[in-house]
Design a protein that fits this description.
It holds the Pfam family Aldo_ket_red. The protein contains twelve helices and ten strands. With about 325 residues, the protein is of the alpha/beta class.
């Protein structure tokens, strides 16, 4: 069963394996299968569910809401996000303006079938909206009881500091950041994690398996398996392309004996690795079939010994991306149309 961790400097506990439905619900997976997968997640002890209004242009929230219908609401932690374009994608259907935040939270709650979410997240930093406007709007969302806590996604260390200070001045808690993080993509370690530890902010990390590359299923010199994420544009093929170089795939294959020695699958090893970072509260995982979660959740509670961590470092350090400057290139400088 899944273990739980506190989210940031708060009293909120979340399941350290959190179910995310970015490329599955409303897109890759039929609704009936999505519902069965969510129910399997609940059976395995996963209580935290992450989505966003932009996933499948709002459909993913609707599917998740349907899947959670009838569950005891108090036993769940539901996260969603705002920033990317939704709906007809007009000039105000994007960003972190007060207008878009309020319209988005109301739409998200309606689709999710709930009166509130535990965590409402800024999906990126909005350079076109004054941060004071954004944080004041978030504070009002919290005061209206529509969200309990505020989080962000892919913010830089400096943005976290400024946002945290404003949130505190408005009497609300900014408790989380949601960045990409894996043994192959470690750019948050240099600046974001130290700043977050100082501020009491946790990481909820996405792509802990590097879009599936760390599962070992992609082999150097061979085409990607049919139906895999690397071959499906709807499933994030553009995100995985940076890891599909032969030198990366060759390094990943060196992890098989490491995983065997630890008694884990390579996927479990990858997820367990991110959870060794004390600043990580949860690893986001998706699934297109219920049985995939049976394997994934076994990474919860795993403590990798020093020799195992050293072996992973030795295998992947030459090909891992660690430059903290990469954190400055994630949020668009202008709102996406």
């Amino acid at each position: 069963m899944v273990e739980y961790r506190y989210l940031g400097n708060s009293g909120l506990k979340v399941s350290e394996i959190t179910y995310g439905n970015w490329v599955t619900h409303g897109s890759q997976v039929e609704n009936d299968a999505a519902v069965k997968t969510v129910h399997r997640a609940l059976d395995l002890g996963i209580t935290s569910f992450d989505t966003a209004d932009t996933y499948a242009n709002t459909v993913a929230e609707t599917v998740l809401g349907e899947a959670l219908k009838g569950q005891r609401r108090e036993s769940l932690e539901i996260f969603t996000k705002v920033y990317w374009p939704t709906g007809p994608k007009g000039p105000n259907d994007t960003g972190l303006s007060r207008k878009h935040i309020f319209e988005s939270i109301n739409g998200s709650l309606r689709r999710l079938g709930t009166d509130y979410v535990e965590l409402y997240q800024a999906h990126r930093f909005d350079y076109e909206t004054p941060l004071e406007e954004t944080m004041q709007a978030f504070a009002d969302v919290v005061r209206q009881g529509k969200a309990l806590y505020i989080g962000v996604s892919e913010w830089t260390a400096e943005q976290l500091r400024e946002g945290h200070a404003l949130a505190k001045s408005y009497g609300i808690q900014l408790i989380s950041n949601q960045p990409q993080y894996s043994a192959l993509w470690r750019v948050i370690e240099g600046k974001v994690v130290p700043a977050s530890e100082e501020l009491g902010i946790s990481q909820i990390v996405w792509s802990p398996m590097a879009q599936g590359v760390l599962s070992g299923k992609y082999l150097p010199g061979q085409p990607a398996p049919a139906g895999s994420r690397a071959t499906d544009e709807k499933s994030g093929a553009n995100f995985i392309s940076r890891f599909m170089r032969d030198e990366v795939l060759e390094a990943v294959q060196k992890l098989q004996p490491v995983a065997d020695q630890a008694g884990l699958t390579m996927a479990q090893l990858a997820i367990a690795w991110v959870l060794q970072n004390k600043n990580v509260a949860a690893a986001l995982v998706g699934a297109s079939r219920p049985e995939q979660l049976d394997d994934t959740v076994k990474a919860s509670g795993v403590r990798l010994d020093a020799d195992t961590m050293a072996a992973i470092e030795a295998a992947l350090a030459p090909v891992a991306t660690t430059d903290p400057e990469e954190t400055y290139s994630v949020s668009p400088k202008t709102r996406p149309a």
